[in-house]
Design goal:
It contains five helices and three strands, in the order ααβααββα. With 114 residues, the chain is of the alpha+beta class. This is ArsR family transcriptional regulator.
C-alpha cells in the first residue's frame, strides 16, 4: 500500500520539519482559535522577537500558518485547510501501518485470511 496525499514530497518534508519543534507546535496551537500578533507570540516565549519570527516563517513556509497585515502588526493564524491535509496524511500512514500489523498478526497466528 502506498500513501497517497495531496501534499508533495517537498511539502511533507516542510510540514514534518516545522512540527518537529515544540515551540512551533505551540505556535500552531495558540493560533488555531484566533489570530495572534507576532509580538503577542513573542511575549509567551523566553526568546527574542527575531527568534519567534523565524519560527513563524518556518510554519508559514510549511503552509501551517498565514500572516495577515493589520496596520503595523502581523496577525498569525493557523491554516485549518493545511492542517486537514496533514491530518489526512497521518490517517493514511495509520491505515498503512494497521494493515501491515494485521497481516503480520495473521502470519504469526497461522490464519490464512489477512
Amino acid at each position: 500500500m502506498v500513501v497517497r496525499t495531496v501534499l508533495s514530497d517537498a511539502e511533507v518534508d516542510r510540514v514534518f520539519h516545522a512540527l518537529a519543534d515544540a515551540t512551533r507546535r505551540d505556535i500552531v496551537r495558540r493560533t488555531l482559535a484566533d489570530g495572534v500578533t507576532v509580538s503577542g507570540l513573542a511575549e509567551a516565549y523566553a526568546m527574542s522577537f527575531a527568534a519567534v519570527q523565524k519560527h513563524v516563517t518556518v510554519l508559514e513556509g510549511a503552509g501551517l500558518v498565514t500572516k495577515e497585515p493589520r496596520g503595523r502588526a502581523r496577525i498569525v493564524r493557523a491554516d485549518p485547510e493545511q492542517l486537514d491535509r496533514v491530518r489526512g496524511l497521518l490517517e493514511e500512514y495509520g491505515r498503512l501501518w494497521r494493515g501491515r500489523i494485521d497481516r503480520l498478526d495473521s502470519l504469526l497466528t497461522g490464519d490464512d485470511e489477512p
